[in-house]
Amino acid sequence: MKKPNVVILGAGYGGLMTTVRLQKLVGVNEANITLVNKYDYHYETTWLHEASAGTLHHDRVRYPITDVIDRNKVQFVQDTVVKIIPQEQRVLLEKGELSYDYLVVALGFESETFGIKGLKEYAFSIANINAARQIREHIEYQFATYNTEIEKREERLTIVVGGAGFTGIEFLGELVNRVPELCREYDIDPKKVRIICVEAAPTALPGFDPELVEYAVGVLERKGVEFRIGTAIKECTPEGIIVAKGDETEEIKAGTVVWAAGVRGSYVIDESGFEEMRGRVKVDPFLRAPGYDNVFIVGDCSLMINEETNRPYPPTAQIAMQQGELCAKNLAVLIRQQGELQPFKPDIKGTVCSLGHDDAIGVVFGKKMWGSKASFMKKMVDNRALYLIGGPSLVVKKGKFNIF
Amino acid sequence: MKKPNVVILGAGYGGLMTTVRLQKLVGVNEANITLVNKYDYHYETTWLHEASAGTLHHDRVRYPITDVIDRNKVQFVQDTVVKIIPQEQRVLLEKGELSYDYLVVALGFESETFGIKGLKEYAFSIANINAARQIREHIEYQFATYNTEIEKREERLTIVVGGAGFTGIEFLGELVNRVPELCREYDIDPKKVRIICVEAAPTALPGFDPELVEYAVGVLERKGVEFRIGTAIKECTPEGIIVAKGDETEEIKAGTVVWAAGVRGSYVIDESGFEEMRGRVKVDPFLRAPGYDNVFIVGDCSLMINEETNRPYPPTAQIAMQQGELCAKNLAVLIRQQGELQPFKPDIKGTVCSLGHDDAIGVVFGKKMWGSKASFMKKMVDNRALYLIGGPSLVVKKGKFNIF
């Protein structure tokens, strides 16, 4: 009997969790497992705001994929996925192609610019390790350049964050801690620095408990962030942004613009002819793409409706990992042709949003929390993600223990 | 009797040495001493190549001026000199003006671009702390950006150094050590990085012993530097440089161009109507400007002919400090109106050119040396400069002790 080919695309939270669970569930002789990823490392997407601000080195945010996979069972291919041809059970890569019996698509998110002019060209987005390093260095270069110019341009020291959602707020929390360090490094008066957050929605952190939102905004404002709520970015230019509130428009000059207001699924989904909405596929209860019983979609590329709220579940690491876990179990059922497929039921333990290394807000097991307690919980959430994929040794290597 | 006003312009090697020696020689009631400097710190100009490459933090390269001056005797003014009016014994500053009975001009060097098109706009020069930080960050930003671009531009990883003189060679020595660190930091294949040194003269380090030059060039070539000797930079563009050798021209694309091939005296000299050549004044044996017996010029703005070679002495820290020492003695003679002015006689102990932190070439007390012995000597030279100005406590604070 021919061993089935299982191909997993992407080594983010969803894909890597599928891989490490599947390698435990099946034996060497039961399946050929191939994991494809653009880089030879996994990175903690939910920690990228720290690497981008420069408050945590990017090497603390990533680890080699070969550290967590069992190379006797899993073949790792470093390549970029170009397109899936589900009718032919093939995947085109930049440097090769693969055929599969079972496919797991875990290609994660990309930045969504909603067609805002100039955003792609002139704004950064906190997308991956490469982008995070560039944002860190771009901001630092602006500070390093300021004092070299005879005509001082204070807009070099202005940082605009587009979006006061989860990523925007967490990034602001790091920036307010980073800026005083940069001011010392480059002999700059902190009063000259501006951090401006522009949010089109009528509140920061839409969907969060209002009392916690107020706490978060208050903390960031006291540390110098200017919030422009209910204000939309209309255009991004080489000099900054143009915003609109009602009928009034205004130009804000800024040396750095970071767009943290929109994500979508992978463009590979669009390319491959799946039924999709912004790169996300509405999957069946077993996480399969409509029409293809052998194609599972986990993480930010999958779309599931929360029946309690009638809205899609948000694209979070928590859900991606739970999906990966279930996907591995269902793959084992299919490979062995015994047992029954299980439907996905998310188990939302809570959400914690950091405000720098020593403050946070969150709701955990239905309980609201803020300050050092929430910050402690955030670090436990971060360490738990490491534990679930790489066990205790990965927590020791990469975990966050600056908890007191 | 009115106390004379002594004004010292510039807190580089020459000006600061004049100040610290003069404050020891005269009493509080003998003179008003005012030191003017653009920054509130002194920096080791001869170490700036390290800060520029990023191999030594710029805070290791500078110290507060108030650490070494006696504030009972010396008034420190942080301001920028605009113009000297020697006929009226006045100095115009950006934010004020001073009148003097005795003036010491120690305004140091500026970059000389020899009218090469685009050099001022598109090339960096290792001029001061601000510039050094910007060069370090510019190079780092090029490396950080490389992997974020879909179309990789390898010229981002090309660094051109204009000039294989003393500064150019020392900067190359640091760069070859820094580049492997940057490659690790930004996941870049070191083979993609190019370091190109362009020198118009027929040899690197003109004036140095040929055997030592060969050693230095060999060391740097083995670490990856490409030398283009006898090749002139014709133009600098936003994309790189255009060079010419004989009749042939060539474009070299480069993300970073550092111009290390020319220095001149301060433009304040030109502005102030002294007889000058490229901002340097041919001083009398007592270091005085022609026509003004109360204006002393020390350091890189002064020009003295070495009668043995019939060429000017090079602008070095060694000579600047010796001039400062003599200038302080002569000022004390004038202030007290007793004794006789002494002529300046340089005492060249040697020259050591570093090739990174662990290698160097040099001639010290007439003896040629290279390798770790020369490197040790270089660090002793650096520590000696600290000792002469700030005594043992400054050596302890800022000295180089990584000598084994």
TrEMBL record, chains A, B:
Q: Which residues form the signal peptide?
A: none
What cofactor requirement does the entry state? FAD
Q: Can you provide one Gene Ontology molecular function annotated for this UniProt record?
A: NAD(P)H dehydrogenase (quinone) activity
What is one Gene Ontology biological process annotated in the Swiss-Prot or TrEMBL record?
Answer: aerobic electron transport chain
Q: Which UniProt keywords apply?
A: FAD, Flavoprotein, Oxidoreductase
Is the Acyltransferase keyword given for this protein?
no
Domain spans labelled FAD/NAD(P)-binding:
5-324
Q: Which domain of life is it from?
A: Bacteria
Which EC numbers does the record give? 1.6.99.3
Indicate whether Oxidoreductase appears among the record's keywords: yes
What Gene3D superfamilies does its record include? 3.50.50.100
Indicate the family of this protein: Belongs to the NADH dehydrogenase family.
Q: What is this protein called?
A: NADH dehydrogenase
The protein's organism comes out as Anoxybacteroides voinovskiense
- Source taxonomy lineage? Bacteria, Bacillati, Bacillota, Bacilli, Bacillales
